[in-house]
């Protein structure tokens, strides 16, 4: 069987995907990972670059929606106020937010020494999920070097599963992590791409739904060996949903920050389709940005392209929901099993149920 990274999950919905099936199908977007896989340390950093230039000098429009706010992200207040990104987006574990933010600041200052002196300060943007089940999160293993390595590794070929920030993440009591998807739609008579990247670390197995099919209980029942059965039943079914998911949505459609906030909110529809109820202890945050234009730093005036009218946004909303649902499935589909802190183990979806493809075939 091919490695998890080479597998393709079943296609969700009827909208076509882009050529890569990742967030990098949105022109200019690149992603890099730095993975820490050292015994009890199972964590990492993922960096998303909105374009190949300097995001402080050429900011991109953006907005976020907090579906459930049990999270420790940094930088959202200024994004909400100003509606732009001015650093790459960093993903990591909860206790490494400060390290990633400081690395972002240092990188911006290296590129632009006027920041914080002649110019305003920079707004680092870091999102997190708690990978403490598998990772020794108290080790504070992530450093500025790991952010720099992930940034340097950014490219259009996006790895998924148990990599980067997703290394120690769990999803529906299985191995979670980084997932990607894209959809191509026509809006206002033009073709646009919507891409999603998720850091999936949420859910309980009985909730798991794939393409409308409530498969969580069936997956648990079909675990093919004693290890799988024991691991999948280790957490009582009555325990509430916990964990988090970060959903990053990119598009090449010309939208302003208000419209991007509306787009980001539709990520919740894709999340709900997988079975999530946005539990009390879950940090569910979506951020959307557009690559259709940039906002120059220090400009007196900003010229916007013609924006897609609100009445023509529905295809983009649908593409966002489908992309997020697909990206969550992609994270499960591509993840490899991981053993981490204190011998704890999360089995991948495929290691739990090797005949998964057969199970997902529609009943005649």
From TrEMBL:
The keyword Nucleotide-binding does not apply. Gene3D superfamilies: L-amino peptidase D-ALA esterase/amidase. Its EC number is 3.4.11.19. GO terms for molecular function: aminopeptidase activity. Pfam families: Peptidase_S58. It comes from the Bacteria. Keywords: Aminopeptidase, Hydrolase, Protease. The keyword Protease applies. It is an enzyme of class 3 (hydrolase). InterPro entries: ArgJ-like_dom_sf, Peptidase_S58_DmpA. Belongs to the peptidase S58 family. This is L-aminopeptidase DmpA, Serine peptidase, MEROPS family S58. It comes from Paraburkholderia xenovorans (strain LB400).
């Amino acid at each position: 069987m091919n490695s998890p990274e080479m597998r393709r999950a079943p296609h969700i919905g009827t909208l076509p995907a882009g050529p890569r099936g990742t967030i990098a199908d949105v022109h200019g977007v690149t992603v890099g990972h730095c993975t820490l896989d050292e015994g009890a340390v199972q964590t990492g950093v993922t960096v998303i670059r909105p374009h190949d230039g300097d995001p402080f000098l050429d900011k991109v429009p953006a907005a976020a929606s907090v579906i459930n706010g049990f999270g420790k992200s940094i930088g959202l207040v200024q994004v909400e106020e100003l509606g732009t990104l001015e650093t790459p987006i960093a993903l990591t574990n909860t206790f490494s937010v400060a390290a990633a933010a400081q690395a972002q600041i240092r990188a911006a200052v290296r590129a632009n020494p006027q920041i914080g002196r002649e110019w305003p300060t920079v707004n680092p943007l870091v999102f997190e999920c708690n990978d403490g089940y598998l990772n020794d999160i108290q080790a504070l293993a992530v450093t500025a070097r790991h952010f720099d390595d992930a940034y340097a590794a950014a490219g259009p070929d996006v790895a998924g599963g148990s990599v980067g920030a997703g290394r120690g993440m769990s999803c529906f009591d299985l191995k979670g992590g980084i997932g990607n998807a894209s959809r191509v739609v026509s809006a206002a008579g033009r073709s646009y791409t919507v891409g999603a990247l998720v850091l999936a670390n949420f859910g309980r197995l009985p909730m798991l739904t794939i393409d409308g099919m409530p498969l969580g209980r069936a997956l648990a029942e079909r675990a093919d060996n004693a290890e799988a059965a024991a691991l999948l039943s280790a957490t009582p079914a009555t325990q509430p949903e916990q964990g988090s998911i970060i959903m990053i949505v990119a598009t090449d459609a010309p939208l302003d920050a208000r419209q991007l906030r509306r787009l980001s909110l539709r990520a919740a529809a894709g999340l709900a389709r997988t079975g999530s109820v946005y539990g009390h202890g879950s940090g569910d945050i979506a951020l959307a940005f557009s690559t259709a234009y940039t906002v120059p730093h220090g400009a007196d005036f900003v010229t916007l392209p013609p924006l897609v009218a609100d009445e023509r946004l529905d295809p983009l909303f649908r593409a966002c929901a489908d992309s997020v649902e697909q990206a969550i499935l992609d994270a499960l589909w591509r993840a490899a099993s991981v053993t981490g802190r204190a011998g704890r183990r999360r089995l991948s979806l495929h290691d739990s149920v090797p005949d998964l493809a057969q199970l997902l075939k529609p009943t005649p």
